[in-house]
Design goal:
The complex is a heterodimer of chains A (119) and B (141). Chain A is α/β, with parallel strands linked by helices and 119 residues long. Helix content of chain A is 39%, strand content 30%. Chain A is globular and about 40 Å long. In chain B, strand 4 and strand 5 form a beta hairpin. The two termini of chain B are 27 Å apart. The mean pLDDT of chain B is 89. Classes of the chains: A alpha/beta (119), B alpha+beta (141).
Chain lengths: 119, 141
């Protein structure tokens, strides 16, 4: 019934992008974790989650994202998200995800943020 | 659309994914009623979370049970009742609107923040019910 989540990983100028295609629900946990662990093991410090091809995210999926973001922050990695509709941006803010992950309009903005020197 | 009450009743299996059937129906009704796209997104998510709560917690993923979704068109908005068959009585310690969501009640927290009226109840005949209302002529926050 749901659309199974698939991930693809690409790297550009120090940013690892995990692109989600499908639904982010309770079934996404292994897929999301595997993708995150893959980029984390590569030693990257900046990770972007691309939701452009993701139409359905529920609270169980948000819990999966929170798990990854929490682990990333613990490891000192910065996490960005882009491609979210205004509705899902609102939900992410509502549940506090934006305290740990910056929301960007697109990949270019994420790249711009990582290239800026820390204040 | 006339101003009298019209109802749509849907029964979905207690299995992940079927909440999408209820979501699609709610979206169709809301579009017909003239809700804005932002409010339709709010409704879609709230219906999803209420159904998931019923499937996972109320009916404990028992495929022999159903979740009933009743949508009633009203002059000032849309009322949605989501009922499970009560394999488990839902707790009464749900977060209040504005409270930080806990790990377990994140879906309920989302519903409370998206809908204009939300009530939880246990039915005498068994089962739990979430009653939600979304008002027309109100913008998404």
């Amino acid at each position: 019934m749901g659309e199974e989540l698939k991930t693809t990983i690409r790297r550009q100028n120090g940013l690892a992008v995990i692109q989600f295609t499908g639904d982010v629900t309770t079934f996404a946990e292994d897929v999301v974790q595997n993708a995150y662990q893959q980029v984390s093991r590569s030693g990257v410090n900046n990770i972007a989650l691309d939701f452009t091809s993701c139409e359905y995210i529920n609270s169980a999926g948000i819990a999966v994202i929170i798990g990854v973001v929490t682990e990333a922050r613990r490891k000192g990695q910065d996490v960005y998200a882009f491609g979210l509709s205004s509705h899902y941006q609102k939900l992410f803010r509502m549940v506090g995800l934006t305290d740990y992950m910056a929301i960007c309009e697109n990949e270019a903005e994420a790249l711009k943020r990582i290239s800026m020197p820390a204040a | 659309m006339q101003d009298d009450k019209r109802s749509i009743e849907i029964h979905i299996p207690s299995e992940y994914g079927y909440e999408k059937v209820a979501m699609a129906s709610a979206v169709a009704v809301a579009k017909r009623m003239g809700f804005s796209p932002d409010r339709i997104d709010d409704l879609r998510t709230a219906v999803s979370e209420a159904c998931l709560n019923a499937i996972e917690h109320g009916n404990k993923l028992d495929v022999s049970t159903k979740v009933m979704v009743v949508m009633t068109v009203q002059s000032e908005g849309l009322e949605v009742n989501v009922q499970d068959q009560g394999r488990q009585r839902l707790p009464s310690d749900f977060p209040q609107p504005g409270e930080a969501p806990g790990e377990r009640h994140r879906g309920i927290f989302i519903i409370q923040n998206l809908m204009d009226e939300v009530e939880f109840s246990s039915m005498d005949a068994g089962g739990n019910q979430i009653r939600m209302v979304i008002h027309l002529n109100k913008t998404s926050e």
